[in-house]
Amino acid sequence: MPEKCSDDEFVDAWKRLGSISLVAHELGLSIRRANERRRVIENRHGILLDAFNDRRGFKILHPENKVRSIANITGCVIVFSDAHFMPNETSVAFNALLKVIKKIKPVMVVANGDILDGATISKYGPEGWQTKPTLKQELESVQHHMDAIVKACKGLNVILHRTIGNHDIRFEKRLAGLVPEYKDVQGTRLSDHLPEWSVSWSVLVNDNTMIKHRLQHSGIHSGYNNVLKSGISTVSGHTHLLEVKGWGDYTGRRWGISTGMLANPKSQAFDYIEDNPVPWSQGFAILSYDNTGRLLPPELAEVIDGVAYFRGSSI
Ligand SMILES: [Fe+2]
């Protein structure tokens, strides 16, 4: 049988999909043939193509559309959200994130939505006469910061994944509404500009933790409502609240984690709050899984008065 793709194409598909059934489907190979290619490539290049996405098989139409399911995660997973990266702004929490990555060596980093603010492509009009950064300036800031995370993870064999936030989707939504003929043209999706990061609406880890930017509940009790109604631990952004709500029932202990905001609450991205007090907090969450894949009590890194703290010390 002729080889239908290059080794590089196969490895690229594997890194994105992590499942023999999904890779075979995308490349038009039989599962048997795809497995043969996998072994040949592993031997030829001295690499290991581990499956990390085998729980849902063909139920995942494409990881960008639905859930990405990742099994057999042990070790630490860092989840941050709501970075709203702006030009010429770098938050204390962002610098802390890079340091914590180097310190704890996570197996996965999840950008849990709203890396892009997209003020100029919002359906809402401007709040006043102030000048907003252009979309190009915002996109360059997103790439600059996301690249810095990729560099901090270098050599660690980390899965880099992002979930889609309601602000991120503005990038595609605007174009899809105005020029639908450009569908699938390179550069018209935010993911085209962040090739190292796989993307989906949500991520299910070890069948016990759902990570998603905006779960069904928002508001002050979102952590409680989300964990109560999801039946497994939940990790959500969007509210800018940073907290861990424990819950338990006959199925055992679980947590509703709100991942705060990587952005500074005083960033120009949030002028719309009109200087009102808000319970938002700069920081991110750290999940640890034991060697059976069970989620252990979650931890937070938090910025207070301009200083980031993690595990009882400043970072
Ligand atoms: Fe959001």
What does this structure look like?
The N and C termini lie far apart (55 Å). Helix 1 crosses helix 2, helix 2 packs across helix 3 and helix 4 packs parallel to helix 5. A hairpin with a 2-residue loop joins strand 12 and strand 13. The chain is 26% helix and 22% strand. The chain is globular, with a radius of gyration of 20 Å. The strands form two sheets. The protein has an eight-stranded mixed β-sheet with strand order 5-4-3-2-11-12-13-14, with helices on one face. A six-stranded mixed β-sheet has the order 1-6-7-8-10-9, covered by helices on one side. About 3% of the residues have low confidence. The relative contact order is 0.15. It folds into two domains: 45 residues, no CATH class; 248 residues, Purple Acid Phosphatase, chain A, domain 2. With 315 residues, the chain is of the alpha/beta class. It binds fe (ii) ion. Fe (ii) ion (FE2) binds next to loops.
Measured by DSSP, the beta-strand proportion falls in 15-25%
Task: Work out the radius of gyration.
Answer: 20 Å
The main sheet comes to: 8 strands, mixed
Overall shape: globular
Spell out which ligands are present: fe (ii) ion
Mean pLDDT reading: 91
Number of strands: 14
**Helix count, DSSP H or I runs of 4 or more residues:** 7
Q: Class of the largest domain, according to the CATH hierarchy?
A: Alpha Beta
Contiguous uncertain segments of 5+ residues? 55-64
When the domains are counted, the total is: 2
Strand line-up in the sheet with most strands: 5-4-3-2-11-12-13-14
For this structure, the quaternary state is single chain
CATH architecture of the largest domain: 4-Layer Sandwich
